[in-house]
């Protein structure tokens, strides 16, 4: 079923789709629209640009009753830019429905005009969690009649620290509603929120499953540790991953390799069991938000790490346990992306590779290290920079406040803001390197919760 006309959609919607030239459904639309139209809850895993706005938008518009001038659907998005984009697409899909009102409620813009618009009512709200929560607190917004809740790019909202805000918003809605959750990845946090706020959801995955083909494995014979380290440098320079884990077998080796990489100019962190919790937490924040490129770790220290979109895994030595090897490389090539797994081995370790080949049923392909012509290149920098704010949960600082302060008037674009982590007394926000200076100035000169907080780059 790939044609919109095969769906039991309202005739005015079908006619408008035809006039827009929308005839064939994308895979995510074909997989999810029948479920959405049936009224069931849905978890849909699909990448940005897959046509997911129409997948939930058509379902929302199909069951909308324009004669009831109440808010019947709420669409939550992580950034103002995405919310504006979704609202624009919904208005386009709703062109044939007369007297429909779709309202955007986003941070970074004055709240007064939004209050005025809400006084005149709306059918669909598209907004960011922080600003929607602001209106709920001010009692300028009622969600008592919401029949459909859409969480768009839910994984990104959780990355940006909106978990508690989402819970507060959902608590203001009727329990009897349809909830549609769209996400590019499916981390444990998504599973947890789905368990709390959804009723027997159907799950749809489009081109996001991990497969053996998603991970390219390469094995490199090395003579000694000097060649091992040089091989690591050459492969990092050749493939330039934004995030890579180097697995070492001992804590001492972890420190040595991280020190050597830093001396070469890489942004590298050493993770092992001797670290204090505060230092470990900060390290993981920086690595997960892509403001540090390489995490050098022991298996024990890396246990429980949930890092999505990991570009590459390096085995500095072959793992002592072959199950550990399989687990290590399984950290890359997730969510439909392609991953790289590189393993260095000495002649003494060759027998382990033979056992690995027997275990997995796959041949071991030996490769030659890249040539050393990258020696004189300047090492590349991580795509993001972490800014620390000296205010956190105890000072009532929320992710939405930080996002609003950064993207407000003359601010940075929403797509330049990465993960936001708020701890008890601090907050950490990742910003694209090109916008870091501007972002720091905005935070240093502006206010959060009506107060000035010290901000610095770490």
From TrEMBL:
Domain of life according to the entry: Bacteria
Domain DEAD-box RNA helicase Q, residue spans: 2-30
Domain Helicase ATP-binding: 33-204
Entry keyword annotation includes ATP-binding: yes
Boundaries of every Helicase C-terminal domain copy: 214-375
Claim: Nucleotide-binding is one of the keywords in the record: yes
GO molecular-function terms, A-Z: helicase activity
Key words, A-Z: ATP-binding, Helicase, Hydrolase, Nucleotide-binding
Motif Q motif, residue numbers: 2-30
InterPro entries assigned to the protein according to its UniProt record, in alphabetical order: DbpA/CsdA_RNA-bd_dom, DEAD/DEAH_box_helicase_dom, DEAD/DEAH_RhlB, DEAD_box_RNA_helicase, Helicase_ATP-bd, Helicase_C-like, Nucleotide-bd_a/b_plait_sf, P-loop_NTPase
PANTHER family in alphabetical order: ATP-DEPENDENT RNA HELICASE DBPA, ATP-DEPENDENT RNA HELICASE RHLE-RELATED
Family: Belongs to the DEAD box helicase family.
The protein's name: ATP-dependent RNA helicase DbpA
Organism this protein belongs to: Marinobacter halodurans
